[in-house]
Structures are given as C-alpha cells and as structure tokens.
Amino acid sequence: MIYNLSKLQITxxxxxxxxxxxxxxxxxxAGYGYEPLDQPNxxxxxxxxxxxxxxxxxxxxxxxxxxxxxxxxLVRYVNTHMSWRRAHxxxxxxxxxxxxxxxSVTSIIDTLPPLGYGRQTPENIRSLDACVLYRACKELSIExxxxxxxxxxYSAVMMRGYDHKQLxxxxxxxxxxxxxxxxxxxxxxxxxxxxxxxxxxHISEEEALEIRSKFNGLDIPEVxxxxxxxxxxxxxxxxxxSGDLNPMISYQLIATEGEDDGEDMIESPR
Length: 270
Description:
Blueprint: E1 2-4, H1 8-11, H2 20-29, H3 42-51, E2 59-61, H4 68-79, H5 86-101, H6 105-109, E3 116-117, E4 127-128, H7 130-139, H8 150-158, H9 164-176, H10 180-189, H11 205-213, H12 226-237, H13 247-257
Parallel strand pairs: 3-4
Antiparallel strand pairs: 1-2
C-alpha cells in the first residue's frame, strides 16, 4: 500500500493566517529543518517552506509493518520527538492518517469520545494535533491567525456543539471584563456603526396578546429583527430596549437571565 505522509493532505492549502504550530508540524512530518523561531521573518520562512510543492507528495510504499525504515517514516509523520514501540506507532499512525483521507475531519471527530489535544505520544495516542484542529477550524469557518495556539483551536472546535445562547453567554462574560477602550476597539474592529435612534414602536392590544401567547414560561419566542426584539421585550419583560445598540442581543440577555421589570415577583398565598 502507498501512503502520502505529507500533513498537507490533512491541512489543505496554507496561507498567511495558518498558525505557527501547524506550520511546524507540517515541516516536522516532512523531515524539514528550520531555524530558531526567534529569527527575523520566520513567519514568511516557515510558510514558504511548508507550502512548497515538494512537501505535498511525500509518498512511501509499505513493504512490511516490520520494516524499520517504514516505521521510521511513521514516527516522523506522527511525532518525531518521541520514542515509540512498534505497536504504539502503528496505532497512532492509523488514527492520524484517517484524517488525511477524510472529506470532513469534523465528521470523524463527532463520532469519537472526548479527546485531548497536542502531538500524539505513546501515552496519548488518540490526540488531536494542530494540523487536524486547523482543518476542523477551516471546515467550521472559524477564523485563526499565525499566533493562534493549539489550545485555542481545540477550544474553538469543542465549542461547535454549543447553541447560540451558550456561546452568547460565554462571550458576554468576556465583554463584562473589558474596559471602555477595549469595548470600543472591538466594535471598531468589527465595523460596528452606531444605529439610528429608535423609538418604542406602537403595540396594539391584539399584538400584545399574540406575543404573550407565544411565551410558555420556559422557551422564549425567537425574534428575527430589532423591532421584534423591542416589542417582545417590552410586552414580556416590561423593558424598553429601543435605545440599546443591539436590541436583539439585549432581548436574548434579558430573556436568558429571566429579568423582568426589576421587581421581585409576588406569588399568591397557598
């Protein structure tokens, strides 16, 4: 059987935003040496070396699984910084190589039990390395850059199962820890513009009844526009968010936290 032992088969095309940890794994798997990472222009040098076409066709034919030269190539492909026993390197290789043959690495990850991350070791054979996580991030349209670490890519991939509300609350906890200058900087970075001043829209009695009929006390009604968010929040929680920068997010936050008009609810005696 012929194997292509280039990790470009896992990562796909590389670019200026490919993380350094991914580039190093690609080069190690190809047996390509590189200078100390503190040298000038290392980003460009690593990317150029890792992207070279000769690395994309690193094929080897398996004569026998007992052939020492074949096993040495597997060690280089998996993790050349470790000493391996034959059984361990074969198992580690089979686990890693499946990602190079898959149309979707996330579909494989979805079928596996919770895994750790990092280069595979004899003690942690079923580990997701940087190349696999990078490919998964690309499939999930998660943005990374040269400085993105493997632990951040792992966290991003593991969050793929979170729903919108969970992700919003996680992001909200980060937002609360930022000062005003950080908040403004992030808004500008995301091309945020202050919207036009809104007013609380007119809500008829019939419309209010219809909105209340959609709320069962557990699952809040979904909204798709800022105007809907403003109306629903006013009717259901007696809160006017028409002046908020992002009414849809304000609605989600108020609804999730179970906020009302600011007063404690009074229950009837039993």
